[in-house]
Amino acid sequence: MNRSVLCVDIGGTSSKVGILDSAGQLHLIDSIPTQPDAASFVSYLCDLIARTRARAGDAGHSIAGIGVAVAGFVSGERDRLVYNSNLSWLEGFPIKSRLLERFSLPVEMEVDSNAATMAEYRFGSGRESKRFLCITSGTGLGVGMTIDGVPLRFAYGCLGDIGHIIVQPNGPLCTCGGHGCAEILVSAPILARRYGATAGLREVIDAANASDPLAITILEEAGAWLGIAIASMANTLFPDHIAIAGGLSAAGDYVLRPAERVFRESASIFARSNASFTRATLGTMATLIGAAWPFWEDRNLHGESRTG
User: Fold this and answer.
1) Residue 116 near residue 290 (C-beta atoms within 8 A)
2) Per residue in 48-66, pLDDT tens?
3) What does the alpha-carbon distance between residue 293 and residue 232 come to, in Å, rounded to a whole number?
4) What is the model's pTM?
5) Where are any strands of DSSP class E within the chain?
6) What is the DSSP string of 24-84?
7) 145 contact partners, CB below 8 Å, separation of at least 6
8) What's the pLDDT tens digit per position in 150-169?
9) pLDDT tens for each residue of 230-267
């Protein structure tokens, strides 16, 4: 990547835009709410991209293209979202073609879990891992994996909806229509709702840092559920390194300690003995950074699919 990439991260609650330079540094980060109307949302997103592109030009950045990471399953052509229970209103909308129409730049689209995983593999704690599993928890629970630096695309452009692995039989109803999924027990909106927070997960984390026992309990319980989910994933996928990224990673040890403890208690001896476990280095910026990965010089866009 000799030039900068204009990165877009379309999330369930907000969508971010930024410029990633050739040294892997983010600049000019801005965001808008992810509003539940496809046409108007993409129009607002295009306006934000245009403003960011203009600011990048003023700052001396030469833009190689636009990389878009979106939460959910994407089409085989990677040009639109085909499924996300949290973004059903955006399903089928021609995101890539709208960006190509508006901007005379190459556009590449990627699943957000793959983007976060590739960023963490390239710039973060996943470096030198052979079988790297990255869990990104925010509005949803995304999971990506690389094998020798190549994304594992098991279904619909990604690892599948593995964030909806069942961890509590007959548990609460999830937005996907299932019961007891990991996502419904650890996602940011659920934790904020349990605490009664009006400012989202950040309010819960701040309260925990101020020694609020309810906030601490909520985060630790989320960590334990996450640990159960990761143990099941590890028993199937056998990663050599596991990292936690996304908004939940900002809770630090309140989530990471119980997650690792339960993972070590629950996973098979072989799975747990061969896997290291850390907080992702890039945190909440992993997906935005990873949106640029299709433009990296050592990408393998044509031969990247893996089955294990």
Assistant:
1) yes
2) 999 999 999 999 999 999 9
3) 28
4) 0.88
5) 4-10, 14-20, 26-33, 63-70, 73-74, 81-83, 107-111, 131-137, 141-147, 150-151, 241-245, 276-279
6) S-EEEEEEEE--S-HHHHHHHHHHHHHHHHHHHHHTTPPEEEEEEEESSEE-TTSSSEEE-
7) 117, 131, 132, 133, 134, 151, 152, 159, 237, 239
8) 999 988 888 888 999 999 99
9) 999 999 999 999 999 888 899 999 999 999 999 999 99
What does the domain layout of the chain look like in residue ranges? 4-115, 127-286
Which residue has tokens 């689209």?
Answer: 109
Amino acid at the residue 308: G
Residue with tokens 């028993």: 235
Two tokens, residue 183: 């996502």
Q: How confident is the model at residue 304 (pLDDT cuts 50, 70, 90)?
A: low
Domains 4-115 and 127-286 share a fold: yes
Fold of domain 4-115: Nucleotidyltransferase; domain 5 (3.30.420)
Q: What is the CATH number of domain 127-286?
A: 3.30.420.40
Element (H, E) at 206: helix 201-209
